[in-house]
Amino acid sequence: MVDNASTDGSREYLENKFPDVHFKWNKENAGFSKASNSVLDEAKGSFILFLNPDTIIAEDCLEKCLSFASHQKNFGGLGIRMIDGSGKYLRESKRSFPSPSASFFKLSGISSLFPRSGIFSSYYAGHLPENENSEVEVLAGAFMLVSKKAIEKTGGFDEDFFMYGEDIDLSYRIIQAGYKNFYFTESTIIHFKGESTQRNSPDYNKHFYVAMELFLKKHTRGKIKDRFIRIAIAAARKLASAKRNVSNKISTGFTGNETNTAAIFASHQRFNEILQMVKFSKKPLVIRGRIAIVPDDKNISIGKLKDLDKLVKKKMFNHFILSEGDASFEEIISIVQKFKSRLFFLFHASGSNSIVGSNNKNEKGFFISID
User: Fold this and answer.
1) What is the CA radius of gyration of the chain?
2) Phi and psi torsions of 246, nearest 5°
3) Cβ(347)–Cβ(335) under 8 Å?
4) d(CA 145, CA 165)
5) Domain edges within the chain
6) Which of 52, 83, 51, 75 lies closest to 146, judged by CA?
7) Do the beta carbons of residue 56 and residue 333 sit within 8 Å?
8) Residues 359, 86: contact at Cβ < 8 Å?
9) Which of 148, 167, 169, 337 suits 181 as a labelling partner, its CA being 20 to 30 A distant?
10) Where are the beta strands (DSSP E) in the chain?
């Protein structure tokens, strides 16, 4: 695990928690590409997985991915179906190469108006079904499984990309080297958006648009004029900026003006542990009760998992705390998908003293912690 100069006590916490993991602690933020490349020589397996820290994967996810990859001829890389912390499908799970027109439609927001178009939404490979395995051009760096052979042939990430675009560039070079990339749907992961950089922040604008321009200049030189690239990206930035100014005025998620009520999906014992953590929340949460994990649970609860739909329709609570350890990650991901956008999901990992959640890609997530 590579850490890019965290200042939140990660080292002290993680080294004690996971003594068998090999950590590399960078003294400065070297960027995603450089940090990832720095440990490639130590990787011994036939496959390498680049995985963001703001993700949740099911217990059998890697087994399914490796099984699929090992049966593909000329396998280069694999990206996976992703949802955000509210259960919404992330369109960047499958993408095409960002031609000037595709980049313009994406950056300006036009692609959102025609999500299934092979032209206006070509950046997100809108013509490919969301729930079918497909051969694709671009993999997302949040979960990027690549063959060691493809990495050795391409040389890994281009370190000119500090953040954003490095996954597109590597995907392009993997295909140029004669390998194939795939979009895999037989497992789904949660990727919390907005935790690295928020979409409406200056840092996001700086890194994202610079990355797009860098990619286009690198791979389209001689095919189109650099001047056209700069004009297209500049126009897209202006349209995207106008779109963000409008979206910032629209309230998303749950506001501080409404009563924040929650139910906890946990065993009786862990329910009481989580109750103690909730007391430290900066955003007051009124706990309505416990949703029982197993059907034969005899302890006090407001219902079982089969009753969840009915309780949500009655608006018994608007936050739902999911306890891993009592429930599997696979079950948790399934619940988030089923009740997407109807609840603000919060997650508690077994053995931790924290609860986290992220319901909006444009804002930092929700965090409760006991030191």
Assistant:
1) 22
2) -70, -45
3) no
4) 16
5) 31-247, 261-369
6) 75
7) yes
8) yes
9) 337
10) 2-4, 24-26, 47-51, 55-56, 75-83, 134-136, 143-147, 180-191, 261-265, 286-292, 303-304, 319-323, 344-348, 354-357, 366-369
How far, CA to CA in Å, does 353 sit from each of 12, 13, 114, 174, 275? Answer: 14, 11, 43, 41, 11
Neighbours of 243 (CB within 10 A): 15
Residues whose CB is less than 8 angstroms from the CB of residue 108 and which lie 6 or more positions away in sequence, other chains included: 235, 236, 239, 240, 243
Tens-binned pLDDT, residue by residue, of the chain (371 aa): 899 888 878 888 888 888 899 999 999 888 888 888 888 888 889 999 999 989 999 999 999 999 999 999 999 999 999 999 999 999 999 999 877 777 778 767 788 888 888 888 888 999 999 999 999 999 999 999 999 999 999 988 887 766 667 888 899 999 999 999 999 999 999 999 765 555 555 555 556 666 666 666 666 665 554 555 566 666 656 655 555 555 444 344 444 456 899 999 999 999 999 999 998 888 889 999 999 998 889 899 999 999 999 999 999 999 999 999 899 999 999 999 999 989 999 999 888 888 999 887 667 778 888 76
Burial (Cβ within 10 Å: 0-12, 13-18, ≥19) of residue 289: middle
Distance, CA of 235 to CA of 231 (rounded, Å): 6
Q: Is 367 exposed, middle or buried (0-12, 13-18, 19+ CB in 10 A)?
A: middle
Q: Percentage helix, strand, coil, to 5, in the chain?
A: 35, 20, 40
Return d(Cα 241, Cα 316) in angstroms, integer.
38
- Rounded Cα distance, 194 and 320, in Å: 20
**Can you give the length of the chain in residues?**
371
- Reply yes or no on domain 31-247 having CATH 3.90.550.10: yes
pTM of the full structure:
0.83
